[in-house]
Design brief:
Blueprint: H1 2-27, H2 34-79, H3 82-99, H4 101-115, E1 130-134, E2 140-144, E3 158-160, E4 165-166, H5 169-180, E5 196-199, H6 210-233, H7 239-248, H8 252-267, E6 275-277, H9 282-285, H10 295-301, E7 309-311, H11 312-318, H12 323-338
Antiparallel strand pairs: 1-2, 3-4, 3-5, 6-7
């Protein structure tokens, strides 16, 4: 800005100098005005001196601005490599680390420990009403749920095998866990064997008479085989189950046996111990109770010793499989699992 101001002044002086020269040239031939010409010449010399001074000042300003630009460029050049100075510092850090090898070893060990840490709960199954937690020894253990979410929706209510309505399945299973652990919060000892009978509030169900109970295994096996066939058609069964279903299409006896075996192997999941708990029976009990009122009586008959576990042979007996089927039932189930 200062340079341009000086230039403008210099241009004005130059313009005035030109006018003064032209006036001097015109009036140089008039003798009466010599005195006036002398004054003009004096002013012209002053303007020329001022012009010379301004030119010198402009040159100095230009040099100063040029120097400032160079300084800025130098500063920018100095700033650009600042990022490159970090590697130099990083190169110095290893020397410091080498001087303290003990500190250097600690950090990788912590990183490796975190990198290869495997949560022991990943491979731990805790039944309903329990959650997996890591104890002080770093081992997985199943603990009763501390609290359940408060449910107000009637559709979340369940009816237990004690014909009691619970606000949610979580509440029922949590209470069962507390009683199994003999916790002080256990309300009744018999709750240690509680399970869901069906969804919804408890209601009066018709009694299952002997004739209905006698015919129930047939109805159930037909129902199971229809489900098995439908899943095979949709290819949602394993290859082994599909082969069983295709093999049984033209043999009513195999339909009965294979459907019962298939469902049993599906139910015996956690753990796979050749015994199905009341909880594992839930997938076929709860949905059928209000539709097939004999299902509870039938499943109770499959547990004659009332240990709340139904073995494969007990299952085969209550489903009225033949002696031949009973002998190969367990091996048949294991063969399916091993595929």
């Amino acid at each position: 800005m200062k340079t341009w101001s000086l230039v403008l002044v210099l241009l004005a002086i130059s313009f005035a100098t030109v006018i003064a020269k032209e006036t001097h040239h015109k009036k140089a031939h008039s003798d009466p005005q010599k005195k006036h010409i002398a004054e003009i010449e004096e002013k012209l010399e002053q303007l020329l001196e001022l012009e010379a001074e301004l030119k010198s000042e402009i040159a100095e300003v230009v040099e100063d601005e040029g120097a400032s630009d160079e300084e800025n460029e130098i500063v920018e050049e100095d700033q650009e490599p600042l990022e490159e100075e970090n590697p130099e510092e990083e190169e110095e850090n290893p020397e410091e680390e080498e001087a303290n090898p003990g500190d250097e070893e600690e950090y990788p060990e912590e990183e490796d420990a975190n990198e290869f840490f495997i949560d022991p709960c990943l491979d731990t199954y805790c039944g309903a009403g329990r959650l997996c937690a890591v104890n002080d020894a770093g081992e997985a253990e199943c603990r009763c749920i501390n609290a359940c979410d408060q449910e107000t929706d009637p559709r979340r209510r369940v009816c237990s095998n004690h014909n009691e309505t619970w606000m949610s399945d979580c509440e029922l299973y949590r209470q069962r866990c507390l009683c199994q652990e003999e916790d002080d919060s256990c309300l009744k000892p018999e709750y240690s064997h509680s399970h869901i009978d069906y969804y919804g509030e408890c209601q009066a169900l018709p009694e299952c008479d002997e004739s209905e109970l006698e015919d129930f295994p047939r109805r159930m096996s037909e129902w199971l085989f229809n489900i098995m066939r439908d899943m095979a058609d949709r290819e949602t069964l394993s290859d082994h189950y599909i082969r069983l279903e295709r093999e049984a299409e033209d043999d009513a006896k195999k339909q009965w046996t294979y459907a019962v075996v298939w469902k049993w192997c599906e139910l015996d999941t956690h753990p796979k111990d050749s015994a199905v708990s009341r909880h594992e029976l839930f997938p076929i009990r709860a949905p059928l109770v209000t539709l097939e009122h004999c299902i509870s009586t039938f499943l109770d008959s499959c547990d004659p010793n009332d240990d709340h576990l139904i073995t494969l042979k007990e299952w085969g007996t209550c489903t009225k499989l033949s002696e031949e089927d009973l002998e190969k039932l367990e091996d048949m189930c294991e063969d399916i699992r091993n595929e």
